[in-house]
Design a protein that fits this description.
By secondary structure, the chain is α+β, with helices and mostly antiparallel strands. It has 3 domains: about 220 residues, Porin (Beta Barrel); about 30 residues, no CATH class; about 140 residues, OmpA-like domain (60s Ribosomal Protein L30, Chain: A, 2-Layer Sandwich). It is built from 7 helices and 12 strands. The strands form 2 sheets. An 8-stranded antiparallel barrel has the order 1-2-3-4-5-6-7-8. The protein has a 4-stranded mixed β-sheet with strand order 9-12-10-11. Helix 5 runs antiparallel to helix 7. It is elongated.
Length: about 500
């Protein structure tokens, strides 16, 4: 658990160093040389033991091996080269080599045996100078060899124990501090985590050692930083340095005197200086009085002064009322015939008002709503008379016009009954017009029954609309008129329409 915490702490420390960004700058070659002292903690599960198994040693020391004590001290030397590369995120890389010695002894008091630990590592060091480059936190990673030796004879006899060598991985972090500013002498502290014999096997595989080091270093070839005197500051940028500026924080763009204070000005450009202007911020171009306040004006040119204009910004040429608001536009009359479009049945063709704004031939086209009959009969209702009277008037004023009057029904009832009823109703309209002195030869009456609906016969409303009388203007054609006897319509037999209509009413529903 302790090992994991230390490794995690070192990784977090390295991430924090890498995250500190700064602008890149060039570095020079420099070499650090120094020494250090420290403390060592050995892992008692470690691979480093001396001696060979023998019956004598087995009797005295189970396993026949001798291990060093758990704690000790060390002495060492170190040399490093700062690489001359551009700083990235202000990280300064260096290559280091170090060698150290840790005198120790066997961990059991009964064994009188002196032992020596020899350490040799090559590491990559990544540092980030801070505090004007005096303090340099760093992380490092490397590897090397560890050798454990003894110059004492073995307990089992037969000369020295020889030595035990293994490879190792080295992780650590620390900091270097420049003792005096702009000098090459610095102090350094390291915390190391070392994995002995990472490729070993069994109980000797990947054991943990810890080092704590304190040392000094001297840098050769490091260029002394030249201190350049700081130029006088002009914080507000008015051209007068802060040491002479009696009015700091002058607004940007203000003209100032020798003391850095703003000269009198006319910020809104209305001709009245700010110290006398009672209406600062006057819009450009406004005429003002002696107090700098705008004179009354008519900004939109509609004839109403701005102080009374409730609708500023009226488009040029717009007629307005006394409040300066646009008058409502006149109702549209697209064809200019004097009949407003809302009442004009032919809004794009000029025609007299008496023809609802249509020329005669267009007025007499289409469905005339209001020409209605008794249910199931060919008898006109009184509300149809004014409409037919107007049609008769138009035809009298335009004697060259011939029309077709067609009757239509819905689809209720038998078709032949509806055809007869529609023809009878068309004849009833023709007879009415003939009574109004319109020649029968100018009118053709025809019935279509349910064959030409204007709307689908799917609702009562649509069926009502399909029961109608339509007019259509026919090409002018001179026809010699036959005299009509009595009150019969031309070409009609007396009462034929009414008789058929009565039959249709019995079989054809509410047409």
């Amino acid at each position: 658990m302790r090992t994991r915490k230390l490794v995690c702490l070192g990784l977090l420390f390295g991430v924090a160093l890498a995250a500190r960004s700064a602008s890149a700058q060039d570095e020079k070659w420099s070499v650090d040389v120094g020494g250090f002292i420290g403390a060592v903690q050995q892992d008692q599960k470690g691979p480093h033991e001396l001696g060979k198994s023998s019956p004598d040693r087995e009797a005295t020391f189970p396993g026949g091996r001798v291990q060093p004590k758990q704690f000790g001290f060390l002495l060492g030397l170190r040399a490093g080269v700062n690489l001359p590369v551009a700083r990235v995120w202000k990280i300064v890389p260096s290559l280091e080599i170090e060698a150290s010695l840790s005198p120790t002894a066997a961990k059991l008091p009964a064994v009188n045996q002196n032992m020596n630990y020899w350490w040799g590592f090559a590491n990559v060091n990544l540092g980030v100078p801070i505090l004007e480059d005096r303090l340099t936190p760093f992380v490092l990673l490397g590897g090397g060899l560890i050798r454990l030796t003894s110059d004492e004879p073995t307990v089992g006899g037969g000369g020295a124990n020889g030595g035990d060598t293994s490879t190792a991985l080295d992780f650590g972090f620390g900091a270097k501090y420049q003792l005096l500013k702009d000098t090459p002498l610095s102090a350094r502290v390291d915390l190391r985590y070392i994995i002995d014999d990472p490729h070993g096997s069994g109980s000797k595989h990947g054991t943990d050692d810890f080092h704590a080091q304190l040392g000094v270093a001297y840098a050769f070839g490091k260029k002394k930083v030249e201190v350049i005197p700081e130029a006088p500051k002009d914080t507000d940028g008015d051209g007068v340095t802060d040491d002479k500026d009696k009015c700091p924080n002058t607004p940007k763009g203000d003209k100032v005197d020798a003391s850095g204070c703003s000269l009198p000005k006319d910020s809104d450009g209305d001709g009245v200086m700010d110290d006398k202007d009672q209406c600062p911020g006057t819009p450009p171009g406004d005429k003002v009085d002696e107090k700098g306040c705008s004179l009354p004006k008519d900004s939109d040119g509609d004839g109403v002064m701005d102080d009374k204009d409730q609708c500023p910004g009226t488009p040029p040429g717009t007629k307005v009322d006394e409040k300066g608001c646009p008058l409502p536009p006149p109702p549209p009359d697209r064809d200019g015939d004097g009949v407003l479009d809302a009442n004009d049945k032919c809004p794009d063709q000029p025609g007299p008002a008496e023809y609802d704004g249509c020329p005669p031939d267009k007025y007499l086209e289409g469905t005339f709503e209001g020409i209605t009959f008794k249910s199931g009969k060919a008898i006109l209702l009184p509300e149809a008379y004014p409409i037919l009277d107007k049609i008769a008037k138009v035809m009298k004023e335009n004697p060259q016009v011939r029309v077709e009057v067609s009757g239509h029904t819905d689809n209720k009832g038998k078709k032949n009954r509806n055809l007869a009823l529609s023809k009878a109703r068309a004849n009833a309209v023709k007879k009415y017009l003939v009574k109004k002195k319109i020649k029968g030869t100018r009118i053709v009456a025809i019935g279509f029954g349910p064959d030409k609906p204007k709307f689908p016969n799917d609702t009562d409303e649509n069926r009502t609309k399909n029961r109608r009388i339509d007019f259509k203007v026919l090409p002018a054609k001179p026809v010699k008129e036959k005299k009509v006897k009595g009150k019969k319509g031309a070409g009609d037999k007396k009462g034929a329409g009414d008789k058929k209509a009565k039959k249709g009413a019995k079989a054809g529903g509410a047409n």
